[in-house]
Structure formats: C-alpha cells, structure tokens
Amino acid sequence: MPVSATLAANDTIAHRRANGLPVVPLGFGEAGLPVHPLLTAALADAAGSAGYGPVAGIPALLEAAAGYWSRRGVPTEASQVVAGPGSKPLLWAILGARGGGVALPKPSWVSYAAQAAMQGLDTIRIRSVGGVPDPSELDAVARGLKLSTVVVTLPDNPTGRLAPPSVIRDLCAVAERHDLLIVSDEIYRDLTSADFLSPASVSPDRVVVTSGLSKNLALGGWRLGVARFADPHLRSRVVDFASEVWSAPSRPVQHAAAVAFAEPPALVERVAQSRNLHLRVASAVASLFGTPPPDGAFYLYPHVPGFATDRDVAAHLLSRNGVVVLPGSSFGDDPSACMIRVATSQLYGDTDEQKEQALRSDNPAELPWIVAQLELIRNALA
C-alpha cells in the first residue's frame, strides 16, 4: 500500500521548499488557515485532561456534535455520536464494521478505496454526480452485484461539485431498494453556499454521517472527527474497533472540539470568512483553467488536453513550473482522461498575518501575495 497521494503531495511541496526550488502548492487539501484564538484558549484550558476518557468521546463533545447536526435539520442524540482521531479512522472503522461490497464515486477521495482494500472489501467505482455515484447506474449495478455500502462526499473532493437535492433523493431511493448503507462524508459541508441536502434528512435510518473540524476551522493537525449513526448495532461495532485501535481521541482536543461544535458567534463568523475566502480564491484559479467555479470546498477538477496521461500533466507542471497538482487517476479516474485535482487552499499567504488579512478581505484574490500566486499559475498554464 503506497503512501496516500495527497500526503505524498505535501511531502513534495516541503522537499522543494527545503531545497530552495519554486513551488505553487496546489496538491494538498489542507485548509491552510490560522487557528482561532477561542480554540487555542480552550485547548490550553484542557491541557491537564490527560486521562483516556470514554472510547466514544467525552459527553460534552457528543452533546455538542449532536446539536451541530440537529441545527442542520438532522435531529441527533448524543448517544448516536462517536468521536475519533479524525474522520478518516472513523470511515475506516465504519467500512470494516459494515463489511460487504462498497460502491464509490468515480472519481473519489483517495482513501476510500484504500481503506476498503485494507478491510478486504470489494469496491466498484461508478460515474460521479457531484460526489455521488450516479443513482441510475448504481441501481443497475446493485441488481447484479452484492453491495452493502455506498460512500458519498458532499461537497466533493476531488471535483468541488455538490450533488443537487434531486440526486440525493434518487440515491436514497436506490439505497432503500437494495438495502444499502449510505456513508455520507460531509467534512466540507460548511464550506458551500449551494443548496445542500444530506442523505440523513431523506433516509435517516440508513445513513452514517461523518464530519470534523479539519476543513471548516482548519484544525487538521488536531485530529478530531465525529460520526452520526442511525443503527445502534453498527455504532457499537465501531466503538469496539475504536477500543482496540485508538482507545479514545485526545482528551484536550475533545474539550476544544466541544466548544467548536457548540458554534459560538465568533466561530460562526470565522467559518463564514473561511467559506468566502476558499470560494473566491478557487473561483479565481478556475477562471485561469477555464473551468466553472466550485460549488464548495476548495477544489477544481479541470481537463488538461495535449498529454497522453494525467500523470504526464502533473509531471510537466511540476518539473517545468514547480506547480504541484494531483493526477485524476489518484482518485480512481482513467489516466487517459487527463483530469487533474487542483487544491487552492495553500495560496493565502506565507504568514499568519497575511492569512488573517485574507480572511477579512471581501476580495482576497486581489491581495498582492495572492495575485502573485495566480500569476505563477497563469504563466504555468501558458
């Protein structure tokens, strides 16, 4: 099993910088923003909480996460929530606890297929509609294959698109017809202004929702994720996995996460600023590629003609221009399609001061240090 393509891209960026080579970091999907002082204070206050705590998470965090989903039209009790050291290990545990064949969007985030393989599960990729396997194709496939789970990403990584409500309703109808569990990865939910419908609002009894704080509040390194379960048996199985693998999430981080999921006004404002920054800068980069702006998150998925494979595109941009992108084949796409995944969230500045200014700006793509990065991209494409 090779290292995750997204993390390998981060290593490439660090290596080039350490060697004084030019780099335009469009490969790694990290939110790239400073931590809000309210959260650093909460973490410091809880630094003395050194005990393991409950496997599923401390009560304050489970209550806060339940409130987060309930405010978004998905009524949730604390007893339905499990916290883990990031949504990534939770997804791995969910796939293992559920078992059976897994349907994935094509393309889809690099770790879904890898995690299913690590669990010994068969996967099939189905053409994506905004992070959702096309419901009609899923219906046809499910008639001939023994599937157990379908994974969706809303909004999507790598494409930046968001499936419309009509597609979500069709997906839920197919899942009902074939008794499929829907795992809805909604880590980017707060970073879209488009019309969002969670499958959990349509089929609440057969959906697991995962989320976290790595994208909306840029806390990826704190490693904290949450999952909402409708099936208590599946939740119990995931807690069993957790007890043997990670024991419990970091307790100080859980206390800070409880503050975050309670959504005090200062953090609501920070998320709104982040959403504006991500979408405006991604839209500016999209215009350079001649592709539509994303519906959410900070990803683009353009086609680059004139090359034999997507890896040729990525290699050319890196060697000739220092531009780091990922080939679409890393996400399960066909290499000959020459699609690349572009992540724009590392363009906001080299210092926290620049990033804070970008957050406060109504037009961050006009700030001089961001304009300079956009010009490098323009020249690379030319």
UniProtKB/TrEMBL annotation:
Signal peptide: none annotated. Keywords: Aminotransferase, Pyridoxal phosphate, Transferase. Residues 42-335 form the Aminotransferase class I/classII large domain. Pfam families: Aminotran_1_2 (PF00155). The keyword Transferase applies. InterPro entries: Aminotransferase_I/II_large, AspAT/PAT-like, NHTrfase_class1_PyrdxlP-BS, PyrdxlP-dep_Trfase, PyrdxlP-dep_Trfase_major. The keyword Ribosomal protein does not apply. PROSITE patterns: AA_TRANSFER_CLASS_1 (PS00105). It is an enzyme of class 2 (transferase). One of its GO terms (molecular function) is pyridoxal phosphate binding. It comes from the Bacteria. Its EC number is 2.6.1.-. CDD domains: AAT_like. GO terms for biological process: amino acid metabolic process. Gene3D superfamilies: Type I PLP-dependent aspartate aminotransferase-like (Major domain) (3.40.640.10). Belongs to the class-I pyridoxal-phosphate-dependent aminotransferase family. This is Aminotransferase. It comes from Kutzneria kofuensis. The lineage of its organism: Bacteria, Bacillati, Actinomycetota, Actinomycetes, Pseudonocardiales.
